[in-house]
UniProtKB/TrEMBL annotation:
Protein name: ComEC family competence protein
Cellular compartment(s): Cell membrane
Residue ranges constituting the DUF4131 domain according to the UniProt record: 63-218
Topology in membrane: Multi-pass membrane protein
UniProt-listed InterPro entries: ComEC_N, Competence_DNA_uptake, DUF4131
Organism: Paenirhodobacter hankyongi
Taxonomy, superkingdom: Bacteria
Amino acid sequence: MTTGRAPARLPAPALWAGLLRALGAGLEDPAGALVRARLDLPLWAPVALGAGIGAWFAAPIDPPAGVIWGLGALAVVALLIWARGAEPLRFPAALLALLAAGVLLAEARAGAVAAPVLPFRYDGPVEGRVLAVDRSSRDRIRLTLDAVQLTDIDPDRSPAMVRVTLRPETAALPEPGERVMLTANLQPPAPPVEPGAWDFRRTAWFEGLGAVGFARGPVLRVAPPDPHDRALAGHRLRMRLSAAMQARMPGQAGAVAAALMTGDRSGISEATNAVMRAANLYHIISISGLHMGMLAGFVFAALRYGLAAVGPFALIWPVKKIAALVALVASTVYLWLAGAEVATTRAWLMTAVMLLAVLLDRRAISLRTVALAALVLLVLEPESLTEPGFQMSFAATVALVLAFGPWARIAPLLPWLVRPVAMLVLTSLVAGTATAPIAALHFGRVAEYGLLANLLAVPVMGTLVMPAGVIAALLAPLGLAAPALWVMEQGTRWMIFVAERVAALDGAVIAVPAPPAAVLPLLALGALVAVLARGLPRVAGLSAMAVAAGLWGTAVRPALLIAPEGALVGLATAEGRALSKPGAAFVAESWLKADGDESTPEAAAARPGFTGPRGARVGTWNGRAVVHLSGTGALAALSAACHGDALVILAASAPDPAPAGCEIWDRDRLRAGGVAFAVDGRQIGPGQGARRWTGGPRRQ
């Protein structure tokens, strides 16, 4: 039956035509597209510089001198083309110069921070100046010492800094700046637990940390802080303020409040840290852009609207710029008080760039301000590119800037009562989505209810805790800080309550296996190209992200893992990874986390896979016997275990000559780091090559 109505025309042809035009943007005039791209060079500059820095860190060996000189020459030629070459060549030449500059910056930085690393194990007296006090992941207080003196070791070979974990019974802690002495067991920073895993040696190199260890006795005070030492004055004030706050606000609420306002996290227990991580609220207790932004935002808004209320004053003076300047000063004081660590400096830099944009009548929230902050930070500290905090901060900020445009169009359409709630949901959702893959990649977990926890906790932090902290700081000299501290305490108690309840929910944390090494650079570069480029390059960026997701989803974990120095062996079984014995907790936890396994090391050691006494555990892999010899009887058991082409892991130095009939991986062979094998018997990756930080320990 006909209705007389004309059939509806499908818009598919028009849609396809529009899509093809979008994909072909710039292809009809490539030279013109490159000329126009010069306007976006400020956005691409940190991407190209970061790519060069990333290439330097990913290299298996330190670049030879010839490569460095060649890159320097390439950078000079590229700069000349950028300055005087043909218009279409200038944009790619600038990117090439920045790429080469990234490699050169990383090389120069690695040389500038070079400091002695303890090349052997040391057990004896340690004297030094207290530089920092913090808490380890095992809930133990640690001291970082500089100006270190070790008995019978030449000062030129002594580490510039060491970190010592104190005994649990240590009561009174020394102040930063005090000179102390203690007996400690020190060793070089540990190598990675498996190929491609986090390398503490690299982190320690850029921190100037030359040894780590634990105290075997009490801490003795040798000399008080030098009153003329301005370098640690902020740190001493920080610790005193933290102690005062915790005295007025006992328990973990006071410890969290002190961490928010002073950056001192030494009072926060590992139990509180654990629930904060499980609820995706750990960013609250680590000073970041969120804290710096809230503090600067409160000072800016309070001063701006306060001055605007003073009648004629607002018509005469530029109250917006005055408020921005005072907020910048307040942020700088906060940076000095909390300590110029990498995360705090990064947060201050991003805040400072936005406040300076207000002072210069520029748009404060834009991709260009974010790019400028990233560029400055990468120039000052190229190693920050490899840190999760840098990656997550800028991922969240870029995502929020991109979401700000659509939100500005949608917000006026919403009822005014709904707008704050909708904005909070949107910012939490956008920031959480942008940072979730990075958090899963680095920490092996996804907080399933992180959005809920942030919706309940972050508003309290922004409207109660941080403002109350600022007011308490202003009223403290008058002795009137108590009411503000009480408000702050209630807010932090609420945040801890939310973290505990959310962390207790079933499925609060989902374990995620570690991805291959190529996933992070593909994901990051793909996302940046998708955001900044147009046409086919944008499609290429999205494709790179899809490839990264595919690599991650199809990754296969090693069948056999051997710990550094032969401390532990792990076999993949149907029930999960079986460990050769309990112990080596950090290695065991790292392996299980990378497997996406939430079991404890004790549970993994109890799995079927190994048999025999504790010092001579035997398993089977790829048709071969795997024998783990450890303890005092390891060398005596070597000859008996060495038959039938067995794979013997020896937690001691093998004799010379070694017994025949087996493949031996002894402590000396495993000093450079953990080793991994696939199910088919091939070794997975040789691990890190000869870099500045990879020198293994040797006996004195």
